[in-house]
Amino acid sequence: MAQRPMTPFDAKLDRLDWTDINAQLDTEGHAVLPALLDMDTAQDLAQQIATPGMRRVRLESNGLGRGELFYLEAGMAAALALWRIALYRRLVPIANRWNEILGIQHCYPAELEVFLQHNRRAGQTRAQSHLSRLGVEDYITLHQCNDGEEVFPMQVVAVLSAPGTDFEGGEFVTTERRPRLQSCPSVLPLALGDMAIIATAARPFQGTRGAYRVNLKHAISHVRQGERIGLELSFHDAP
C-alpha cells in the first residue's frame, strides 16, 4: 500500500498527547487543543468571511439564535483544508473505537476524501463547516450538526478573535444528556488559536453497568461586547 502523503500539520498534531486526548473525549466528550493556530493564521481564517460567493445565513431565520453563519462552500482556505485532513486522520481511530463500543457495525475509512465520497453517494453535498460572526447580544442556541446518513461523530471548533480583547462573553458551551440524569453543561475556555474537539451528537459513556450512548449539543452564549468570529469544522457534509 502506498504511503499516504503527509500534510504540514501532521507533525504538529503528532506532538500532542493523544492518549490524554482520547481519555478526555471518552470522559467529557470534548478536548481542547491549545495554541494550534498562530495569530496570523487565525486572522486569515477570520477574513474568509469576506470571500465572494459564501452562503450567508442569518441565525434568526432558522431559530438558532442571532448572528450570521458563513458556510465554506465556495472553497475552503488551503490551510484549513489541510488541518481538516490531518485532524480526520487522528480522529478516525477514535470514531471507529466508539462505534465498536456501541455495537455499531460501521467503520470509517482512514482518509477524509474516501469518507467524503461516501457522503456524495449518500446525497450529502452541502458543506456544514462554517464561520460565525456574532455581535453584541448575538448568540447560538443548543444544536447538533448531524444531518444525513454519513455522520462523523466528532467535529472541531475554534475562536478566531481574542476573548477579552475583541469581545466579551460568547463562551462556547456544551451540554450532555445521560439517561435518567439532568443535562450536564460545560464551558470550554477557548483562547485565540485554540481548537477543541467535540462530539457531534452522540458518544459512548462507560457507566457502572457498561457502555451506553449519551447525547451532546453545543451553543455559544450571548456576546456582551465587541465581535466574535468563530469556526466550526465538520468532517461530513449535509444533504
Instruction: Give the helix tally.
Output: 5
Sketch the topology as an H/E string, one letter per element: HHEHEEEHHEEEEEEEEEEE
CATH structural architecture: Sandwich
Indicate the CATH class: Mainly Beta
Largest sheet, in brief, is: 7 strands, antiparallel
Number of strands: 15
Rg estimate, integer Å: 17 Å
Average pLDDT rating:
91
What is the assigned CATH homologous superfamily? q2cbj1_9rhob like domain
Task: State the secondary-structure class.
Answer: alpha+beta
Question: Would you tell me which CATH topology applies?
Answer: Jelly Rolls
Low-confidence stretches: none
Overall structural domain count = 1
Q: What spatial form do the alpha-carbon principal axes imply? A: globular
Distance between the termini: 33 Å
Helix content: 10-25%
Brief digest:
The protein has 239 residues and is of the alpha+beta class. The chain has helices at residues 10-14, 18-28, 39-46, 78-101, 112-121, and strands at residues 30-33, 55-58, 65-66, 68-71, 130-134, 139-143, 154-159, 167-169, 172-177, 184-188, 195-199, 202-207, 210-220, 223-226, 228-233. 24% of the residues lie in helices and 32% in strands.
